[in-house]
Design goal:
eleven-stranded mixed sheet; 11 helices; 11 strands; globular
Length: about 300
């Protein structure tokens, strides 16, 4: 079963109307406010707006968005306060608003008060290439600069788990690199070969993991034929694990801005799904991210 489209994700959340509570860290952004307002109208969420209350009220008034029906937590440290809403059980999800990533990560990773788990936190983007009717998960595209083999293992586990939560029984994961040949000149290719070996040995039984593979091999079966490279993942990847943040971030942004695409992003590895995209993202993208995080939460809560 392929990954769902965003139309399918939204329809699934519409059908359930779960009204999950969402703490928005840095709610002084009109696009964020419009996204959570629409989410509330659709029955998806109950927003909790965290930040400077007067600034939130001013932003909402300027944008013509009524927030009097939302709970507002007045706190200058919006990241810490939003995380506290989740820890207390008052919020089920966390959403990044008008706040920089380092501030949010400090709050998430704070040992006594944050949402740290034993899993490396990473950003996963669900990318939908509309004209090809192709969907793929991409990680890490926003957090870990130069992941170690241990961190890559964690990111791989998050990719596998998210793909399965979205309905892919045995996801095919490509470990991408600049070449499909393992070489000591590029350490990331050795990491990919090791993860592929461990998959073959049964360490990741719910997935097919292959690498190193160049991006064209992960995406195109034609490339596999021309390069005479075979494999279950070649041309059929459900997910891609990048060797480092530079490769992941540049690739995902190139796809966002040059392809006919739809996308949404979440943080995996924290104690709850975190709706996480750029401060420059559109209303459409924020709603995509919100639907993705809600689907994650509902699937994780369902009896196995």
């Amino acid at each position: 079963m392929p990954l769902p489209s965003f139309d399918e994700l939204r329809a699934a959340v519409d059908a359930v109307a779960p009204r999950l509570s969402v703490a928005v860290a840095g709610a002084t952004d009109s696009t964020v406010l419009e996204a959570v307002a629409q989410g509330k109208v659709r029955g998806w969420i109950e927003p909790i707006l965290v930040g400077d209350a007067s600034a939130i009220q001013a932003t909402s008034a300027e944008a013509g968005i009524g927030v009097d029906r939302f709970r507002i937590v007045d706190d200058a440290d919006s990241a810490r306060a939003a995380v506290a809403e989740v820890r207390s059980g008052r919020a089920r999800l966390l959403m990044k608003g008008l706040i920089d990533t380092p501030s949010l990560m400090r709050a998430l990773l704070n040992s006594p008060t944050g949402l740290r788990t034993d899993r490396t936190i990473c950003q996963v983007v669900l990318m939908e290439i509309v004209d090809q009717q192709r969907r793929i998960l991409l990680a890490d595209t926003g957090i870990t600069i130069a992941p170690t083999l241990v961190q890559k293992t964690n990111i791989l586990l998050s990719l596998i788990e998210l793909a399965r939560l979205l309905g892919v029984d045995r996801p095919r994961v490509a470990l991408v690199a600049a070449t499909e040949k393992a070489t000591s000149a590029m350490v990331d290719t050795l990491d990919s070969a090791e993860l592929s070996r461990r998959n073959a040995a049964g360490e990741f039984p719910d997935a097919i993991v292959e690498g190193p593979l160049s991006f064209d091999l992960a995406w195109s079966a034609d490339a596999g034929g021309k390069k005479q490279v075979a494999g279950s993942v070649v041309g059929a990847a459900d997910a891609i694990l990048f060797p480092n943040l530079l490769a992941g971030n540049l690739t995902v942004k190139a796809m966002m801005y040059t392809a006919r695409s739809r996308f949404g992003g979440v943080l995996c590895g924290a104690a709850c799904p975190v709706i996480f995209m750029s401060r420059a993202d559109t209303l459409e993208t924020r709603l995509n991210s919100l639907a993705l995080a809600i689907r994650m939460a509902l699937a994780a809560d369902a009896p196995q």
